[in-house]
């Protein structure tokens, strides 16, 4: 009974972990998982399973750092190392965030183009203005609950995967036995999977949220439970997206070159309404993720230069913070002027995140094991093992992919 009450209390206090996990399935993530299923079938399901403890380890390490130090990652790096180190790491974050923001905006704009017939480029600025208005004038908090509810539509992938009636034996083999194909396409898909599962912005965002909540070290176990729940939920949905795409796209040799084709993965359960449901889910996920991406950049820069920060501040009192936030959206628009398709932009932005992943994980692991910073709350054995595995796997995938592309 005591354990039941303890779990019930932890569920009631769900916070940054579950929110971060939910936000991980943004448009870039949804399309990347669809592309992985469409191009490699079930062959990377084992990596999806392996990435779950990797994701938990990285995010729990970040949460511990923030709770113990009562600082964001930017502040920790600047305070305990050097401003140059902090600047390099934040620069990697900004690069990853900009391309992901651009890709997510492109996806939402592409949906609007398909529905209205008005070209994507004409939707980019209105989308930015709407997001900026909602966030700056506090309306975002009001509609956030609605958006979270709408993203639940993406759970339709679970039913779609079941409706495809996958062979259980084949699923088990592909889930627990590694399948590796020495090709550039395979390792690009692997990097995309890792990049969208363990995204750079998630690390900085969760640390900032833990700092804002002012948790103490006696709440570290609760934060771990929160993080584990969020990451398992996120990867469970991703797993079924891959399965659904494998049986609807890969099995029938259907290429994914447009947003509309990506919606085919939920056709077994949604039928003629597949694109409508997909559109609502992608749009809601985009409007949830884009502010988080731009916000993580703004918080990181503001902490680096000790500016006033936070969406609760007025523009006049936190000009630098809002300039970075709105500037990130504008730069995303500029990136979208390239001729790259929405699907390619979404996919390759996550491959970039995968390439940057080992460098960011290395920094986080070093900080989490520094006794001068963490005291008696240095990283757990589990976190250290899987942070190391994350570093090795991501780095190996990067080198093998580059080698395959060169030769």
Structure description:
The protein is mostly helical and 407 residues long. It is 78% helix and 0% strand. It is built from 20 helices and no strands. The protein has helices at residues 2-12, 16-23, 27-40, 45-69, 73-80, 83-116, 121-136, 139-151, 156-163, 168-176, 184-197, 200-213, 220-250, 259-262, 267-270, 274-305, 319-335, 342-368, 371-374, 381-406. Helix 5 (73-80) packs parallel to helix 16 (274-305) and helix 11 crosses helix 18 (342-368). The longest helix has 34 residues, at 83-116. It is globular.
Mind sketching the topology for me?
Elements: H1 2-12, H2 16-23, H3 27-40, H4 45-69, H5 73-80, H6 83-116, H7 121-136, H8 139-151, H9 156-163, H10 168-176, H11 184-197, H12 200-213, H13 220-250, H14 259-262, H15 267-270, H16 274-305, H17 319-335, H18 342-368, H19 371-374, H20 381-406
Helix pairs in contact: 2-12, 2-13, 3-11, 3-13, 3-18, 4-10, 4-11, 4-12, 4-13, 4-18, 4-20, 5-6, 5-16, 6-7, 6-16, 6-17, 6-18, 7-17, 8-16, 9-13, 11-18, 11-20, 12-16, 16-17, 18-20
**In percent, how helical is the residue content?**
over 70%
Number of E-type strands: 0
Question: Biggest sheet: strands, sense, closure?
Answer: none
Mean pLDDT: 83
Distance between the termini: 61 Å
Quick recap:
This protein is an all-alpha fold and 407 residues long. It contains 20 helices and no strands. It has helices at 2-12, 16-23, 27-40, 45-69, 73-80, 83-116, 121-136, 139-151, 156-163, 168-176, 184-197, 200-213, 220-250, 259-262, 267-270, 274-305, 319-335, 342-368, 371-374, 381-406.
